[in-house]
Amino acid sequence: MYCAGLLRAWPLALRALQYDSRHGALPQPWLLLRPCQWPARCHLPCAPCLSCWAGRLASGQTHHLVLLDVELTASPRKSFLTATSLSSADAMSETLRTCYVYLNQTSRSFAAVIQALDGDLRQAVCIFYLVLRALDTVEDDMSIPLEVKVPMLHNFHTYLYLPGWSYSQSQQRDAQVLHDFPSISLEFRSLAKVYQDVIANICHKMGLGMAEFLEKRVQSIKEWDMYCHYVAGLVGIGLSRLFAASELEEPVVGEDTELANSMGLFLQKTNIIRDYLEDQQEGREFWPHEVWSKYVDKLSDFSRPANLQAALQCLNELVTNALQHVPDVITYLSRLHNQSVFNFCAIPQVMAIATLAACYNNPQVFRGVVKIRKGQAVTLMLEATNMEAVKGMFRQYSGVIRQKVPSAGISGVGTRQIVQKVEALSQSERELVSHGHLSPIYLSLAMFLVAVSWQYWQTLTHSSEEYRPTQ
């Protein structure tokens, strides 16, 4: 359950009580979150309603509360609860509280899961997100002349070490992260050096890549992959290195850049596919020319009703391309051990596969906005907490796509092939066991039933002989 009045804050509250569901049943005693009865006028921390507390923490208000946090011992079968005293005033500096305010203001998807991360990784990822949000705001601001924007993108990583640097001319929606960049850069410099090095390195590479694509449009599939690498794949690589640097995950998570890159590409391609109409209305084009030019002369022609079938064929081809990253996504997620990191990574990915299933062969992509339902989104967020559940979601939504594949179209065969591969990879361990052989418990049960049946048959036979009439 969660506080209806503070929906964005519930994952932070849930984190304080969350048990690693991948390792067994809930420990006893267990606490339940209940909806807040007075979300608008609640001023005191009502103990069961941790979502209220989380909302006050995010807003910077000072309330002292003891939370129960679940920690796992070396043995996955054992767990113990520890009481942690948390106070927003003691735990956060003024500038860090400001950064969390900016995080909640600028992020539609990641604010909640970032705030649910464990330990100092939470702050590192928060600052990483805000630095890249500021860089992205520069790229998106069409009012900045190219002769000013290109050097800004090239040098943005150096501004992290300049305490007074800010940019006040931007009128973008998220301009506050540029106006008050000194607060963000101050908190960046307070991070451990291993975190600083990762963030600065990724910021530098991303700025160079953004500048490269400022004056050219995506032509080939290869360039589409490269653009998505610069704006999202590098994010996946940077996050993976932060996970490993925090020691919450194994070093291989940060070292395998190919899988990390695929995590970012899958999310970015999903967004590009879904946002066709919005990007067209704002004069942006990210669909690769190599694909859409097979169907129309101009990308904007897809919005004309006469071109609907061509538009759907192009859409389906791009969805099929995005699905090629899902096997890497499944492999990446299966390597994660920390529950908060798993949730952080898994939730956006299951949202993406659900979004692609909604977009596939859907004319609404060219008429308006395609979104998954709020109830559906909440369900995905609540249930994407272990690998078996995530595999089930990938299997479910790839099945939805398979059922929607039209009989005609260039990409239909390729779509069925990748969907079949995803469904095979996302098969649950239980299903793999049952398809291969009977587990010992089922063999024992079968033998028991055979023995009981044999005894019952013997009893009936004996009784029938006793009561048989004599000749």
Task: List its traits.
471 residues; mainly alpha; two-stranded antiparallel sheet; 23 helices; globular; disordered N terminus; disordered C terminus
Structure description:
By secondary structure, the protein is mostly helical. 61% of the residues lie in helices and 4% in strands. The protein has 23 helices and 2 strands. It has a two-stranded antiparallel sheet with strand order 1-2. A hairpin with a 6-residue loop joins strand 1 and strand 2. Helix 6 packs parallel to helix 10 (193-212), helix 6 packs antiparallel against helix 11 (221-245) and helix 18 (339-359) runs parallel beside helix 20. The protein is globular, with a radius of gyration of 27 Å. Residues 1-89, 431-454 and 459-471 have low confidence and may be disordered.
Gist?
With 471 residues, the chain is mostly helical. It contains 23 helices and two strands.
What is the fold's blueprint, element by element?
Layout lengths: L9 H6 L34 H10 L4 E9 L6 E9 H4 L2 H13 L4 H5 L5 H20 L5 H14 L16 H4 L1 H9 L3 H20 L8 H25 L5 H5 L1 H18 L1 H6 L7 H4 L15 H16 L2 H9 L4 H21 L14 H10 L3 H18 L7 H14 L3 H8 L3 H27 L5
Antiparallel strand pairs: 1-2
Helix pairs in contact: 4-6, 4-9, 6-9, 6-10, 6-11, 7-10, 10-11, 11-13, 13-16, 13-17, 13-18, 16-21, 18-20, 20-21
Rg on CA atoms, Å: 27 Å
What's the end-to-end separation, in Å? Answer: 75 Å
Number of strands: 2
Q: State the shape.
A: globular
For the report, how would you describe the main beta sheet? Answer: 2 strands, antiparallel
Strand order in space, largest sheet? 1-2
- Output the structural class: mainly alpha
On the 0 to 100 scale, the average pLDDT is 79
Number of alpha- plus pi-helical segments: 23
The helix/strand series, from N terminus to C terminus, equals HHEEHHHHHHHHHHHHHHHHHHHHH
Which residues sit in consecutive blocks of at least 5 with pLDDT less than 50?
1-89, 431-454, 459-471
Instruction: Classify the helix fraction into a percent range.
Output: 55-70%
